[in-house]
Amino acid sequence: MDLSNNRFDSAIPTGVVNLKDLTHFSLSNNRITGLIPESFGELLNLEFLDLSRNNLSGEIPKSLEKPRYLKYFNVSFNGLEGTWKRISYHELHRATDGFSRSKLLGNGSYGSVYHGTLSYGITFAVKVFKLELEGAFKSFDVECEVLRNTRHRNLIKIISSCSNDLDFKALVLEFMPNGSLDKWLYSNNHFLDILQRLNIMIDVASALEYLHHGNETPFVHCDLKPCNILLDEDMVAHLSDFGIAKLLCNEDSMIQTITMATVGYMAPDYGIDGIVSTKGDVYSFGILLMETVTRKKPTDEMFTGERSLKSWVKESISSTLLNQVVDMNLLSTNGREHSAANNCTLSILQVALECSAESPDERLNTKEIVTKLEKIKTKFLKNTKRVRQRLT
Length: 392
Description:
Transferase(Phosphotransferase), domain 1, 3 domains, alpha+beta, transmembrane helix, five-stranded antiparallel β-sheet, Leucine-rich repeat, LRR (right-handed beta-alpha superhelix), five-stranded mixed β-sheet
């Protein structure tokens, strides 16, 4: 049934669900409004469903997991397009050479991530959940929930999922060819200049701003660190791994929980009392900013006892020791450019300390962080342009 390219401006007709043998259905390029009916899940023989270029609202109903043959699903919500393809276990197995070690991109708390290429040329990353671990089922459900309900250029995009209830659960994600921020910071074969690092931090801050303030229900990531920040072919950063993310009731709320987070990035209010709020993400972002500029992990062996990455940075920027904490790779041989880069890194570290204040009430919010980092970037570009003009 093809009803595309008309001027229908009402809701999707519910009578469609009576066509039990329907395999292909298109309502694309109309003015359809309202929700996708839950009853579409009763169309068990559906293979192709195109609802794109309409003005739908709400969410993709979970019942659409039921049609066993559904291979193509294209939908738009108020102009936001998204194509979803169902990929079978056998396709994933073949595309990753049987989930071989040669295709392994990395391991996380609840899953392993592989690189794959489908027979028709699409490359992807697939996160296969370790279902033998306690919490893996919940992690899969949470990550599906977050990725299904969020759309932002700096968040990793879900292509599909693959699940057979008890034996196998996986998320098929867009592939990030430049790997993680962790790789770029700590590999001897890679280098990021100060502007690239600043751009990446602005991308991550923008993703957090969207998660905290861009949805009716705020999301808290809970596990911000370099290996969860992935870079595409243009070095644009995408925040990933929402396996322990939490949903709050409103922007000002907090919840108490017992969950896994990464030592060194965890806010004190989270670690001691299990309090999860958007301000916990802000604290982690502050530590991430310091790590990105200093190229020192918060778990580095030099940080023992009372000494931490935060205290080390705080002591150094309040004296004349800034060059001792900044990554040596960022130090320019040109005096004037060195001064511009120094001023930039100092400003970034000051924002980092504001983010990582001990009291949650004293921390910045993500809207303020984005604004401050954008101003630092503008000033740095202006200063370096002036220096280069003088040199020529």
